[in-house]
Specification:
about 290 residues, alpha/beta, Nucleotidyltransferase, domain 5, five-stranded mixed β-sheet, 9 helices, 10 strands, binds adenosine-5'-diphosphate, binds zinc ion
């Protein structure tokens, strides 16, 4: 019973894994995020035969992450059919009578990087995923940041670049970071998927300008010791030097710390190479066992 179940529940796909206590992945499976009535029985059936002693979940948001709130584990106002107000955690705890840890997907990925990846030993960390959306996980003083809800820092307002003819893809905001810099926004602006635009400098020049604005704000507000950038769009490694330079420009020399002076080690890719979400879920499960 000491195997750990882990779920990275994304808006597009669910990654399920069984791991040992040290965080090595023994088995994994991916299923599309269909409606709960289709998806949940598949998740339950997969874990049922695998004898897990605890479970960790990193879920797409917005979702209630406050254990004292009666809505704990519920997906809140999402446009995803069937998931709105669905209590994901309760649906699983009815089937698995084991300790369960629950947080957002971005917070889980942040935790995965702190425990297993590129932010080991740090206790103030920001993790940004640039994919279908832009999600931000935040660790402060060694704890994942919650509060009234949880950080939704992908939706901070951003000054639009004057030469940008693209329109925000966020249904709520005409000029938020997710609306202007997520993978779908790149596709809508340039008429091609981001992965097919690798050689077009103007795409990454604009993208890095937006991401740098977001990061400069996170640096000023959260004061992280390191920022990890993951998600599909960040596979474009040419973004990193552009973002670093523009973050420094944006800060204007005002923040002068050893971390900022070593910017190449400050804004970096994930050390878990894509497994940060699932490994963070493993740590959530381990922490749930200690409570
Ligand atoms: P999700 O956010 O759904 O979990 P991803 O992080 O893979 O999944 O994000 C998907 C987005 O990332 C899509 O918009 C896709 O076009 C973009 N993307 C995926 N791979 C790459 C790549 N190699 N280069 C640039 N963009 C990519
Ligand atoms: Zn928005």
């Amino acid at each position: 019973m000491d195997k750990i179940g882990a779920i990275e529940a994304g808006g597009t796909k669910m990654v399920l894994a069984v791991c040992n206590k040290a965080g090595s992945i023994i088995e994994r499976r991916e299923i599309p995020t269909t409606e709960p009535s289709d998806c949940l029985p598949k998740i339950i059936a997969w874990f049922k035969g695998r004898n897990i002693g605890s479970l960790g979940i990193g879920a797409f948001g917005p979702t209630c992450v406050n254990p004292k709130d009666p809505r704990f584990g519920q997906i809140l106002d999402t446009p995803k059919v069937g998931w709105r107000h669905f209590n994901f955690l309760n649906a699983l705890s009815e089937s698995f009578h084991v300790p369960i840890g629950y947080d957002t997907d971005a917070n889980a990925a942040c935790l995965g990087e702190v425990v297993f990846g590129a932010a080991k030993g740090l206790d103030h960390v920001v993790y940004v995923t640039v994919g279908t959306g832009i999600g931000v996980g935040v660790m402060v003083r060694g704890h994942l940041l919650h509060g009234m809800l949880h950080p939704e820092a992908g939706h901070i307002r951003i000054t639009k670049e004057i030469n940008d003819i693209g329109k925000s893809v966020c249904p709520y905001h005409s000029d938020c970071l997710e609306g202007l810099a997520s993978g779908p926004s790149i596709e809508s602006r340039w008429g091609n998927r981001a992965e097919n635009l690798a050689k077009q400098f103007e795409v990454w020049d604009l993208e890095s300008s937006y991401l740098a604005k977001g990061l400069a704000t996170y640096i000023l507000c959260y004061s992280p010791q390191r920022i990890i950038l993951g998600g599909g769009v960040m596979y474009q490694k040419q973004l990193f030097p552009l973002i670093r330079r523009k973050v420094l420009e944006s800060l204007g020399g005002y923040i002068s710390t050893p971390e900022i002076h070593s910017i190449n080690n400050y804004i970096i890719p994930p050390g878990c190479h894509g497994d940060q979400g699932i490994l963070g879920a493993v740590e959530l499960a381990r922490q749930a066992c200690d409570i």
